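Ex. 9. Protein: RnfABCDGE type electron transport complex subunit D.
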Amino acid sequence: MEKNNLKISPAPYIKKGLEINKIMIDFIIALIPAIFAGIYFYKIDAVKIIVATILTSLIAEGIWNKYVKKTRFITDLSPIVLGILVALVMPTHVPLWIPIIGSVFASIVVKQFFGGLAQNFMNPAAATKAFLIASWAGVMAKPASDATTSASATEVVVPLMDKIIGQATGNIGEVSILALCIGGLYLALRGRISLRGPIAFIVSSMIMYSVLDKDLLLPGAFFLAAIFMTTDYGTTPMTKFGQYIFGAIAGICASVIAVKGFNPEGPYYAIIIMNLCTPLIDYLTTKKYKVKKEA
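Predicted structure tokens for RnfABCDGE type electron transport complex subunit D:
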């Protein structure tokens, strides 16, 4: 009798006919508006960081594949997407070695140590941001001169359209809400992501901001986290109802951390917290079937 060896991998799964590289290409296309917006406002500083993180991510994954004796140096395009996301959560005032270390940490520690693409239990970009702040808080903090300038600039009323289209505040990928939304809409139309998580995240954040007497227009960090982190295949719930729960609670946590904790990186910390709750959310929202045992 012929024996067939079946290889079964853990979830998440993709539909037959879809290739990882095709999905990654769509994510790269979706990130292009945010990349261009960041370069427009931060010029060469943004270019340096984006190029550095992408190259570092590719090299780090290639060396890892060589170490674990994989047949190919680069197995898919996911290192490029990861490199871009790590760059987008970076401020431009940091020295270049910070995003390089961050890219290595995201590629090897957060991603590869736990099995590779879609097997990590935390979003690599969000975890990297938290790691860099915890390790080099002084370097990641805004310089004193810039902080004084930004504090005095709070008295200036910024037009609503400028806030949406773009302004040079925050990290590279947070400057333009419009650019992020264009990328999210593209992914939704292509069927790569569901908008359940992002919508729940944004709506709950706006409600919480209103409760805390803050402006309803959220900072760009909320939209970056909502569109590209609440939809991460491996670290967010697979059930439809679970995605709503994940997004809603993450949005509330992000608002509380950002407002009450005076921490603009609140959305990334909220994503990490909820990543740890993903297995529980999936368990509670998965339909249970009773099976009758035959005699």
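Check your answer against this statement. The CA atoms of residues 86 and 125 lie 5 Å apart.
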